[in-house]
Design goal:
Elements: H1 5-22, H2 26-41, H3 49-64, H4 71-94, H5 98-108, H6 122-134, E1 137-138, H7 141-150, E2 154-157, H8 163-171, E3 179-183, H9 194-200, E4 207-210, H10 225-233, E5 236-240, H11 242-248, E6 255-260, H12 264-270, E7 277-281, E8 293-294
Parallel strand pairs: 1-7, 2-3, 2-5, 3-4, 5-6
Antiparallel strand pairs: 1-8, 6-7
């Protein structure tokens, strides 16, 4: 997916959000913003938005000497998600369609995205859970689980801290001996890294690797050899979140994208409304019938 003009204003907002997390010094904030604007002027709009996102956040970390500006946010939402997890697990177990409910809740966790919205709080998470359980799901749930059942190996490309606890609900419905989960190799926005994996106990459920990258998506040429090997050799890919959709939507692999459409550019690209719960198979294998609408769990 290319970068659109509308993405630029989001980059500016994201720059200010990030630098304000680490300093109240307006002179430093202005310096970072001016440097970021210079980077924007050199953008190649044919590249995906996470390419520029990576450059922006590298710049912010360098200029502010903060290696992980979102660490406190990640810790807070990991704790919130772990607090919610027992009740969410009960919701799945009590559902007449537990596999679909687990998927809905995994997508609900995608609301924890500080690249899109820096004002997220626990109230937004609770609203996302309620919304996920009652709104139509745009995708083919049974086709997803059939593909999971038939695949000999699965790579689950995770997205954000906190969200990975919601992912556990979906992973518990899958043959976990076939699954490897990947997270980011280095801090980028509030994306999950191995610190978050250990803090949430995800590594007690499935094998987890990092991708060696600090991009807010999956830029394959930026990832280390182990991840690329798994990506190339794995039969089925499951990719969470907008950043992974933006970077992998044109990749020649069998990929299921799971996300909440949170910005107008991505929603338009997907052909859905903002706020939609999306399960989308890559065009390489998706049937010509298009998107199906599943009812509430």
């Amino acid at each position: 997916m290319k970068t659109y003009f509308e993405c630029i204003s989001c980059f500016v907002r994201q720059t200010l959000d990030a630098v304000r997390l680490v300093t109240e010094d307006e002179a430093m904030q202005e310096h970072v913003l001016r440097q970021a604007l210079h980077e924007f002027s050199k953008m190649d709009l044919r590249q995906s938005p996470p390419v520029m996102g990576q450059r922006i956040h590298r710049l912010i970390r360098k200029l502010t000497s903060q290696k992980d500006p979102y660490r406190g946010i990640k810790d807070r939402f990991n704790a919130l998600a772990l607090e919610l997890y027992p009740q969410l697990k009960q919701t799945v177990e009590a559902s007449s369609r537990p596999r679909e409910t687990a998927m809905r809740l995994a997508i609900a966790g995608n609301i924890i995205d500080f690249g899109v919205n820096s004002q997220i709080d626990s109230g937004h998470v609770h609203e996302a859970i309620e919304h996920a359980l009652t709104t139509p799901l745009e995708g083919e749930v049974e086709a997803f689980y059939e593909a999971v059942s038939q695949a000999s190996s699965i790579l689950y490309v995770a997205d954000n801290a906190g969200e990975i606890v919601f992912d556990k609900l979906l992973l518990e419905q899958m043959p976990r001996e076939k699954v490897i989960v990947s997270v980011k190799g280095f801090p980028i926005i509030n994306d999950a890294t191995m610190i978050d994996v250990r803090d949430t106990g995800l590594d007690q459920l499935v094998k987890v690797i990092d991708n060696g990258s600090d991009a807010p998506g999956t830029i394959l040429e930026e990832c280390h050899e182990e991840f690329r090997r798994h990506f190339n050799e794995t039969e089925l890919i499951i990719a969470k979140g907008q950043g992974n959709y933006e970077t992998l939507s044109e990749t020649e692999k069998d990929i299921f994208f799971l996300l909440k459409a949170k910005c107008p550019v991505v929603a338009k690209h997907l052909g859905c409304r903002i706020g939609s719960l999306v399960l989308r198979r890559s065009d390489r294998v998706r049937t010509s019938a298009g998107i199906y609408h599943e009812g509430p769990a």
